[in-house]
Amino acid sequence: MTETARRAPTPSSPRQRSWPDWVGQATAGWAAVYGTFGLVAIASGAPVLSASLAPGLFVADWAVVAVAVLAATAATATFLPWGRRVPRTGLLSVLWGLVVVCGLGAFGLLMQVVTLLVAHDVDSWLGTAHQALAATGAVLLAGTARGYRHRTRGTCPRCGTTHGPSSARVRREPTAAPRGVRLAAYIGSAAFLPYIAMKTVWAWGGTFAGVTGADMIPSAERQGGGGTWTVLESWGLDPTALLAALGVFLLHGLVHPWGQVFPRWAPLLTGRPVPRWLPLTPALLGAATLAPYGVLGLGYLTLNALGLVTIRQGDFQSTEDVLLVAWCGMVAFCGYGLALAVAARSYFVRTRPRCVVAVS
């Protein structure tokens, strides 16, 4: 593998030099904000979790406060002296467990972002704020866990190895993902084709599964469709199909070398390295949302095929029609979501910098 070495830029502040220390403090601050958010919601009678999990049962909203208290305790244990008495394995287990819990709390954030972009509104601003806070907490908690693990093992948080204090950063040349990862990307892209075709047929006014594009307009309006959504539909473009195409572009950028540098044809950006967080942020958000949604959806459709559950007919003329649409959607979400998770991990590993002994 060809690599180019460059000396890491001198950090401009102590916080940049010791991110494993300050990320724990940032997580504790987030926990205070998250807990306050939960208490204010409970005091005002505004449902956060109970609106979707247990309508009318505000006790469920106390889970936000409980998670905040546990996160604050675990985060402070990583940088305060009393935390040294806490077993390392137990503290890491708590931190990673909270990452999972906050990830579940952030589920649906991608849908809210899409709705905001195309319809200029969201289902619930309070719920969206909770999802955004939960997503922020998942990132901070993961950073706290990684920083604590590296600090207690004596390894470098940047490259994960052990080396002396004098080092230079090695940036790898753009490389393609392994063949298996690229194959997963191709399969994930192919899984989206029926979904894109279905949405495009409706946008052009055609008929799919016994429903015309005109029949889908009232359903879109009930779900908050408007603004940009209406404009694109009038041009024969379905917003979700366009987002699916952008998602496929992101997926292939994660597994091919051109995704690690800005396109040479872009104005003022000729082959500059892409910041790692730029493609990883939407990739992780999309994988964390679409993969579980698609897997659970396919499981439900499988149970329906076995006659164990029933599916509502909705606006469709028959059960077979709604099942056809559901299979197109769930196969797309599951295949693409899993492929995106695999590609994101490969991209993270391939673009991770290495540290070597600096040579004067």
List the defining traits of the structure above.
two-stranded antiparallel ribbon, mainly alpha, globular, transmembrane, membrane, about 350 residues, transmembrane helix
Write the layout of secondary structure elements.
Layout: E1 3-6, H1 14-17, H2 19-44, H3 62-77, H4 88-105, H5 109-119, H6 125-153, E2 167-172, H7 179-203, E3 207-208, E4 211-212, H8 213-222, H9 228-234, H10 239-255, H11 277-305, H12 319-351, E5 354-357
Keywords: Membrane, Transmembrane, Transmembrane helix
Biased composition (Low complexity): 154-165
Transmembrane segments: 21-42, 62-82, 94-119, 125-143, 180-198, 241-259, 280-303, 323-344
Query: What's the order of the H and E elements?
Result: EHHHHHHEHEEHHHHHE
Averaging pLDDT over every residue, what do you get?
A: 79
Largest sheet: 3 strands, antiparallel
Q: Helix count?
A: 12
Uncertain segments: 1-17, 52-57
Shape: globular
Count of spatially separate domains: 2
Give the distance, in angstroms, between the N- and C-terminal Cα atoms: 24 Å
Percent of sequence in beta strands: 5-15%
Determine the fraction of residues in helical runs and give it as a percent range: 55-70%
- Helix/strand/pairing class, anyone? mainly alpha
Radius of gyration: 23 Å
Q: How many distinct beta strands? A: 5
- Lateral arrangement of strands in the main beta sheet: 1-2-5
Keywords: Membrane, Transmembrane, Transmembrane helix
Transmembrane segments: 21-42, 62-82, 94-119, 125-143, 180-198, 241-259, 280-303, 323-344
Biased composition (Low complexity): 154-165
Region (Disordered): 154-173
